[in-house]
Amino acid sequence: MKDIFNQSHAEEILNRIDNLTRDSKPQWGKMDVAKMLAHCSSFQDIAMGNAFPPRGWLGILIGKFVKPILYNDKPLAKNMSTIPTILIVDEKEFETEKKKLKQKIITFQSNGPQKCTNHPHPFFGKLTSEEWGKGIYKHLDHHLKQFGV
User: Which end of the chain has the smaller Cβ count within 10 Å, N or C?
Assistant: First the structure.
């Protein structure tokens, strides 16, 4: 399983982000490319301990039982629901969102596992830094595949 804390895996993700254009179209889902980048950036904020969305009742109920989907080798399901606080509805500017996301990935990767949040994921609950590293990679990979890169 790939992990965003691995330098080569992080570089792969950054290169794939560079292959996106403002005209990239999703193969599934409703977000345009700028909203997808903002969504991924918001997810980074949670992992970095910069945002603390509350846990929802469904996550409290079943999160710990289904959390392996975040860090196992199986691809995430297309059109999977998301955390309401990182559902992006406002229009976003592509280049701005691209730069923000890339910088957050670089910072997260270079800070290493020791700087990963201890705050629980809003759906899956408590995650180790290893689970966050794999989950971040898997989430980014999912959305980059959504846009064909």
Answer: N
